[in-house]
Amino acid sequence: MEDFKPGLEGIIATDTNVSFLDVDQEEIVIRGYDLIELADKKTFPEVAYLVINGKLPNNKEIQDFEKILLDDSAFPEEAYKVLELCPDSSMLMDVIRTGISFLAGYHSESDLMNTNEKSNFTKGIRLIADVAVLTANSHRILNGLTPVRPDSSKSFSENFITMITGKTPSDKEVEIFDKILTCYIEHEMPNSTFAARIIGSTLSDIYGAFVGAIASLKGPLHGGANEAAMHMLLDIKSKGGHKIADDYVMNRLNNKERIMGFGHRVYMKKYDPRAFFLKDYIAELAPNIPDGEELHKIYKIVEEVMAREKGLYPNTDYPIALLFYLLEIPIPLYTPIFFASRTAGLVAHVIEQHNNNRLFRPRVLYTGPRGLKL
Ligand SMILES: CC(C)(COP(=O)(O)OP(=O)(O)OC[C@H]1O[C@@H](n2cnc3c(N)ncnc32)[C@H](O)[C@@H]1OP(=O)(O)O)[C@@H](O)C(=O)NCCC(=O)NCCS
């Protein structure tokens, strides 16, 4: 029982050749490459291809791959109706989760339950494409806007951000959005990836694994932190701006409240390399909106106070929250976009789980009564 670690902290759950967080070297290893170098030099579809296939694509391979990612002919019209049927009060993550469940029904039972690599690969690529469409359009439909179909003349990221905002983004905005997607693409064994692998380990299908993963990623201790971080920055702005930012954080810490976007189970006392890489883009986008510079000032003060008081540094959700805001992306979409980019990593993990499966079935440390008589 000395093996018991609450939250499975530090426990090795599986072997994998998809990715690894090397905390000592401060490197996120993706199929042998450094994620930050990939985010700097490659596009989201190129890295998605790498994550799933284990190698970078050549020109022909990436063209074919992007074609599938932007082909909406397989996205059924009825799926929009399902989104419309969701109550207006629905959270977007729940609408997308419902959409994923619905789309599973378009596969025959034998195709859906086929866990071989080729079948998972084909279904997985469709899921990456479909989740982007579900993400943008669940928001549009819930807000009374007409759905936007993908435009295959655009790049994946340009198309995705255009479907979300309905505006034509600048090249710089597309570039930064693409880097954010790439930073979110894969991250070893977070709760949502573990959830997907646990579900996959029963030989359940990739759609079911995605449904479990999106439910996990919704939580504020996981993907939900980016939205919470942005609400906090806006709260500080509305209560007095950067001048009160130090006191604001101190108050919350004194009340034992968490500051969202800081800390991490694996990095905990170190700077998340993705956050370090992305933070420099904030200055480039800050002039985009009237309160951008003020929010950036608040951002920096909160970061200083957390380092000074708790020795805690931003995780990737902190800069991404502000970058999304500066890209004029509505806050309820922050966590769904995180999930949409993580789909590539999930496909790779479900394939790996199914290729070398062992059912997850741990034991417990029982603390209840024994011997009760009826
Ligand atoms: C991510 C997170 C859940 C990891 O937590 P964990 O591994 O379970 O670590 P613990 O909750 O045991 O925290 C360890 C210590 O750091 C403190 N801490 C961790 N994150 C904190 C935060 N964001 N704000 C304030 N204090 C924090 C805890 O209060 C605790 O302090 P204590 O030892 O004095 O009680 C946690 O850092 C957190 O809640 N962060 C905010 C949510 C977030 O940004 N999530 C996105 C993760 S990518």
Structure keywords:
single chain, 374 residues, mainly alpha, Citrate Synthase, domain 1, Cytochrome p450-Terp, domain 2, 2 domains, 3-stranded antiparallel sheet, 18 helices, 3 strands, binds coenzyme A
Secondary structure layout:
Layout lengths: L18 E4 L4 E4 L2 E2 H7 L2 H10 L5 H11 L7 H9 L6 H13 L4 H4 L4 H26 L13 H10 L5 H14 L6 H10 L5 H12 L7 H14 L6 H10 L18 H6 L1 H6 L6 H19 L6 H10 L7 H22 L19
Antiparallel strand pairs: 1-2, 2-3
Bound molecules: coenzyme A.
The site of coenzyme A (COA) has 14 residues, from loops.
Describe the protein in words.
The protein is built from 18 helices and 3 strands. It is mainly alpha-helical and 374 residues long. It has 2 domains: 27-219 and 332-355, Citrate Synthase, domain 1, CATH 1.10.580.10; 225-326, Orthogonal Bundle (Cytochrome p450-Terp, domain 2), CATH 1.10.230. The protein has a 3-stranded antiparallel β-sheet with strand order 1-2-3. A hairpin with a 4-residue loop joins β1 (19-22) and β2. α5 (92-104) packs antiparallel against α11 (206-217) and α10 (191-200) packs across α18 (334-355). It is globular, with a radius of gyration of 21 Å. It starts with 18 loop residues before the first strand and ends in a 19-residue tail after the last helix. It binds coenzyme A (COA). Coenzyme A binds at residues 221, 225, 258-265, 310, 312, 315, 317.
